[in-house]
């Protein structure tokens, strides 16, 4: 049944039942985006209420809020949010309420950066909290502009003990409980980006010899335990997992056979659990529209090349869209409206994430453009629009013109 018969993207714009208790008004998701504007002690301000509400009004079926730290973090983004106390939850409440008041749905994204941190960042210096990762193997890249010399990620890493693992899984659950208090409708777990969960998945960053390292099932164990812990807070059908099998951000690429084996096992397990959705990114596989400065991670180390023309949706999509699966499939990275519409029409995906277009096209404008087949506005302001620097939080955040 098609919702809006006259639209140029009728499939994308039709309502979509994510779970029995949650119907989204369309299949369009605003991807989680760190915007580095939580200037009130890592809590959002009224600027964030405006930003999310503008994009929810008559807009996306689902918004995933920016990645939010579950513990003190040595981040490149000093003004990313933290969710460790009731005061954090209460600061998000006006945002979730405002999104709901205009008919939107908003999910929380718990975030642990793993080895992609710098221990000289203020939050870690203040708390003496260590940089935890599965193994003490430094990540390449990173750019800590606020530190002298602009260093990369730290090599001062503490390999997680079994008790660290228990503690961090509990931090995931606690942050999600607080998110529930804050009024979030569900959770998307970030398992990509070179961050903690991704560090566990890949042998390049995980050389553990216990039950969390070695085989694919062992490397997936940490994520699957995080999922189970969060499922004690939110129904499994309201939890999504975001993965990027081909990504090489923060030096995380693995060989193709490892990639194939790991993600095949992982996706089958997630589907078996009845996870709400898998959000599959094709970042790193050279498909989609040309990359901008956000991060082109297609260059892979020798011996870790992908098969020519590789597209992860071809390999992993059928594992989600299979008989008996309750799990929905979302995709992201460089998709156009036409490509997403065609994939939904063919029954190959259920949901589409747009990330960058939601920065430059305030939401009511973006969905209206899809409805009327008007091209998205492109960013003509350069790379600093993403994370700053900015003179004032609203700059490049709440000052994009509405064209329609
Ligand atoms: C400025 C910026 C910040 C981002 N921050 C996050 C984040 O916090 N968590 C996450 O899962 N993805 C993050 N992403 C990735 C987006 O959610 C999305 O997956 C990606 O941009 C691909 O979609 P697009 O090609 O439509 O932009 C970020 C992307 C951008 C551009």
From TrEMBL:
Alphabetical list of Pfam families matching this protein: Oxidored_FMN
Highest taxon in the source lineage: Eukaryota
Annotated ranges, domain NADH:flavin oxidoreductase/NADH oxidase N-terminal: 12-375
GO molecular function terms listed in the Swiss-Prot or TrEMBL record: FMN binding; oxidoreductase activity
Annotated PANTHER family: NADH OXIDOREDUCTASE-RELATED (PTHR22893), NADPH DEHYDROGENASE 2-RELATED (PTHR22893:SF91)
Protein name according to UniProt: NADH:flavin oxidoreductase/NADH oxidase N-terminal domain-containing protein
């Amino acid at each position: 049944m098609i919702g809006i018969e006259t639209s140029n993207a009728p499939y994308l714009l039709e309502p979509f039942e994510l779970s029995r208790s949650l119907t989204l008004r369309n299949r369009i998701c605003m991807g989680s985006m760190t915007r580095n504007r939580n200037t009130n002690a890592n809590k959002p301000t009224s600027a964030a209420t405006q930003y999310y509400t503008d994009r929810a009004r008559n807009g996306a079926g689902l918004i995933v809020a920016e990645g939010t730290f579950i513990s003190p973090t040595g981040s490149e983004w000093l003004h990313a949010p933290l969710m460790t106390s009731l005061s954090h939850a209460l600061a998000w409440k006006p945002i979730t309420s405002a999104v709901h008041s205009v008919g939107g749905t908003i999910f929380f994204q718990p975030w642990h950066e793993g080895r992609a941190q710098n221990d000289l960042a203020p939050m870690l210096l203040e708390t003496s909290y260590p940089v935890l990762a599965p193994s003490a193997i430094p990540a390449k890249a990173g750019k800590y502009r606020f530190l002298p010399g602009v260093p990369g990620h730290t090599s001062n890493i503490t390999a997680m003990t079994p008790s660290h693992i228990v503690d961090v899984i509990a931090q995931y659950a606690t942050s999600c409980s607080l998110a529930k208090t804050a009024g979030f409708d569900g959770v998307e777990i970030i398992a990509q980006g070179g961050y903690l969960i991704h560090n566990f998945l890949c042998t390049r960053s995980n050389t553990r010899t216990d039950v969390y390292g070695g085989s694919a099932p062992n490397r997936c164990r940490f994520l699957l335990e995080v999922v189970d812990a969060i499922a004690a807070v939110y129904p499994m059908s309201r939890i999504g997992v975001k993965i990027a099998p081909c990504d090489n951000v923060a030096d995380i690429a693995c060989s193709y056979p490892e990639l194939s084996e790991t993600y095949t096992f992982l996706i089958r397990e997630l589907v078996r659990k009845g996870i709400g959705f898998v959000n599959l990114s094709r970042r790193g596989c050279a498909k989609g529209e040309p990359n901008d400065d956000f991060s082109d991670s297609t260059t892979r180390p020798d011996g870790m090349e992908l098969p020519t023309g590789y597209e992860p949706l071809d390999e992993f999509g059928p594992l989600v869209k299979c008989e008996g699966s309750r799990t929905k499939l979302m995709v992201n990275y460089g998709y156009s409206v036409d490509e997403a519409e065609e994939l939904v029409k063919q029954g190959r995906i259920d949901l589409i994430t747009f990330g960058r277009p939601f920065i430059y096209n305030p939401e009511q404008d973006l969905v209206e453009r899809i409805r009327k087949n008007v091209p998205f506005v492109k960013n003509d302001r350069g790379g600093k629009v993403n994370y700053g620097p900015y003179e004032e939080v609203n700059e490049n955040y709440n000052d994009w013109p509405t064209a329609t």
